[in-house]
Design brief:
With 218 residues, this protein is an alpha+beta fold. The chain has 4 helices and 11 strands. The chain has a single domain (30-114, 132-217), classed as Rossmann fold. A hairpin with a 5-residue loop joins strand 6 (133-153) and strand 7 (159-162). The protein is elongated, with a radius of gyration of 28 Å. The termini are far apart.
Length: 218
């Protein structure tokens, strides 16, 4: 009798039980990576003085611009020209000023450092490896933008704007101790906080003595 009741109970559970599958996906490039490049680009363009071509009709030549996020650089440049009172034209023959933009370096770099024990593979034929044990980890990602801007009179070909070197960088830093919540800092986290109004939070970071420190996540 008890055996029959057990069978009935198991069958009932099988009928009412269910499962759920959660699907998640990410874009090919992270938001932080794109922010590193766009922020470095904005800083580089902000170093250029467009005052000499204020209110001029400007044709922007982009054939020398060959880099990641080219379209953002072009639109950001258009934005600054229009803020300066310039009028954008589609043909060089309609322009008073021809502006050329080129890229020397636009990209990201990453530095990773950890203190601990690396993963150790077990002797063959075992496919298993002992997992890596991290005591301290530090990651730093940097975005670099080196742009050059040259503008000259469409008739006389005399230069009116020469930006020289416009090199800027943006950074995103993160470190953890003994697997605790990461401590984040850098120009990109500061920019995100400023733009979105996210509040600073605190995480408990274990110290070597076994106590905890409260650190701000920036």
């Amino acid at each position: 009798m008890e055996f029959r009741l057990t069978i009935v109970a198991c069958c009932s559970l099988a009928l009412v039980s269910g499962c759920a599958t959660t699907k998640s996906s990410d874009t090919a490039r992270t938001g932080v990576e794109q922010l590193l490049i766009s922020s470095a680009t904005d800083q580089a363009l902000d170093k250029v003085n467009f005052e000499p071509i204020r209110n001029a009709k400007v044709f922007v030549e982009t054939k020398y611009l060959d880099c990641t996020d080219k379209n953002y650089i072009i639109v950001a440049l258009h934005q600054r020209l229009m803020r300066n009172g310039s009028t954008l034209v589609d043909k060089a023959e309609d322009a008073q000023v021809i502006l050329e933009v080129g890229s020397g370096a636009v990209g990201t770099d990453r530095q990773e450092f950890f203190v601990g024990i690396p993963a150790i593979p077990l002797p063959p034929p075992s496919p298993i490896a002992l997992p890596k044990m991290e005591i301290f980890t530090r990651t730093k990602a940097m975005g670099t933008a080196k742009l050059t801007i040259l503008a000259y009179d469409a008739k006389t070909r005399q230069p009116v704007v020469d930006s020289g070197l416009t090199l800027s960088r943006a950074d995103y830093k993160q470190w953890t101790v003994l697997g605790a919540s990461p401590v984040v800092s850098g120009s990109i986290p500061d920019q995100i906080t400023s733009a979105t109004g996210e509040k600073e939070s605190f995480v408990n970071v274990p110290t070597i003595a076994g106590r905890t420190d409260q650190r701000k996540v920036r």
